[in-house]
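QUALITY CONTROL LOG
STEP: pairwise intake check
CHECKER ROLE: data steward
CRITERIA: each record must contain a sequence immediately followed by its structure tokens, with no blank fields

ENTRY 1 OF 2
RESULT FIELD BELOW
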Amino acid sequence: MVTSEGKVYEGDLVGVDEKLNIILNNVLGAGKNVYKVVLNSDFVKEIRLVEKPFDLRALAERLNRVFPGMVKIMEDIRSIIVMDKIKVTEQGVEGSGLAVERVKSVFDEFMRETKE
């Protein structure tokens, strides 16, 4: 992120409020030992995305083909819930039961395809 004053900040984007103020965690460029920075939107000149975000919706659509009507996207926690008991995030699949193996295989295939 570049400010109108030319300062550059790098970090994990964790929030944007209603006034478009930006919240970054694990910030580089803000000094030593800075964990979180809130930047006023009036001073934000440019935001650069350095890696492609995980496509939660595309994975949910694929899971919905295998488990029709049993897939819910939980945007607030960046998760997909399958059959109300299997949780899928960018990090992997959590849950138990026979369906977990099928969800894991869909997840693994999706991850392989998106990394290519």
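ENTRY 2 OF 2
RESULT FIELD BELOW
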Amino acid sequence: MPVDWLRRKLGADPPRPNAPDPAAADSPEQLSERIAEVVRLINRSSGEMPGAAVVRARRLTDTLQEIIDTAAIRPLDIYAVMSVRNTLNDYLPTTLQRYLAVPESARHVARTSGTTPVESLVEQLEALQVSASSVLVASQHQDVDSLMTQGAFLATKFSGSDLDL
């Protein structure tokens, strides 16, 4: 009790037991766990989705895992983390859930847009894949850029300088 009184008197915030660390939710380990959850959702729903959609959804989760795996070389860029997190927590599950909410009898019926819910699902998954592939390429290019920068540094450091007499 006296310690709490002293903390308040000094203006210190009381400690928060078991307060979640926001950065931990974006760790490669946590993101990989979230991928496993989404894969289970895809697998559970595979009987209600067209095969092409299941394949595209799994290819998307594989691409997201490849992005996360680049963290073994260098910490993930904040934009890569946001893209992976948003895809796993919102875009992909929402896309799948909205499709699964459509009655089976209406899934192959063209809407006013001219596309069926099945076609729309496949198109949406393909759009997510294009986005994830772009993030993966950007992450890989950062690795290449880092390697090239390191090579230029080493060449300058260990070769004769233009300033040597």
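INTAKE CHECK: passed for both entries
DESCRIPTIVE NOTE, ENTRY 2: The mean pLDDT is 84.
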